[in-house]
């Protein structure tokens, strides 16, 4: 249910995968892994991340899917080399403003959470190429608009996909043997790539964030300019949809229409 504190002694560790366990916490010594580049702790029972995660300055890929996180530590903004971060299926209700400091972030999966909006600091994520807000995201153009938070009066970004509605228990399959590969393939082909391109900070608030359509093809199909995603393993094992960062982000030629 937990990792030993001594894991922090593995100074040369570059990849750590502890997904599909029953971890309820991560030790603070995780921050001592200064050379860690890939960290996958998906499919556990984590309710928080230690603030020391901010010391992982070499981190490029972070996957914390299918846990119970209600929030992220502010120190996450110090992970400035992260390019792929997946937080799918948690209990996130808000994101810290410091996420805007992760300016190398290119792929962010926030689907199946409880977010009501995004912090205005998202406009600083100039490299962001794909933002997933729903597992069934079906439209490529998802503009963001600036609003004032009703309580704090701070500027936030929102669109018609907010507030997020967490999936109920009936949406999950209890028996892995009931997996329908035909249906899965049809749903897979219907999904699309969403890429965000934010305006300069000096633009009017109403134009603070906008998106551009990269392609109407599914993101795992070749022949498009976008992000190549790999589906999770079909054996019932839990894993992050992002396999390796250096293989996922690539420029591909745009297909020519016949």
UniProtKB/TrEMBL annotation:
Record carries keyword Manganese: no
Keywords for this protein: Leucine-rich repeat, Repeat
Record protein name field: Leucine-rich repeat-containing protein 7
One Pfam family this sequence matches: LRR_8
């Amino acid at each position: 249910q937990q990792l030993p504190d001594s894991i922090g002694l593995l100074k040369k560790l570059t990849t750590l995968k502890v997904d599909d366990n029953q971890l309820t916490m991560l030790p603070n010594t995780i921050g001592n892994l200064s050379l860690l580049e890939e960290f996958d702790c998906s499919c556990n029972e984590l309710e928080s991340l230690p603030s020391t995660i901010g010391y992982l300055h070499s981190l490029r890929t972070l996957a914390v899917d299918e846990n119970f996180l209600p929030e992220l530590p502010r120190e996450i903004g110090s992970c400035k080399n992260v390019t792929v971060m997946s937080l799918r299926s948690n209990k996130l209700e808000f994101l810290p403003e410091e996420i805007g400091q992760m300016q190398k972030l290119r792929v962010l999966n926030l689907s199946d959470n409880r977010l009501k909006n995004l912090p205005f600091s998202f406009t600083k994520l100039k490299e962001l190429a794909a933002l997933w807000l729903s597992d069934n995201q079906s439209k490529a153009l998802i503009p963001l608009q600036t609003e004032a938070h009703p309580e704090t009066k701070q500027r936030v970004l929102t669109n018609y996909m907010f507030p997020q509605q967490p999936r109920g228990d009936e949406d999950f399959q209890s028996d892995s043997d009931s997996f329908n590969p035909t249906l899965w393939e049809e749903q897979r082909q219907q999904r699309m790539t969403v890429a965000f391109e934010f305006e300069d900070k000096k633009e009017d608030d109403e134009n603070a964030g906008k998106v551009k359509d990269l392609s109407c093809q599914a993101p795992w199909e070749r022949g498009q300019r976008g992000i190549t995603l790999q589906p999770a393993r079909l054996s019932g094992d839990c894993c992050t949809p992002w396999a390796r960062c250096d293989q996922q982000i690539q420029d591909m030629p745009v297909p020519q229409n016949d």
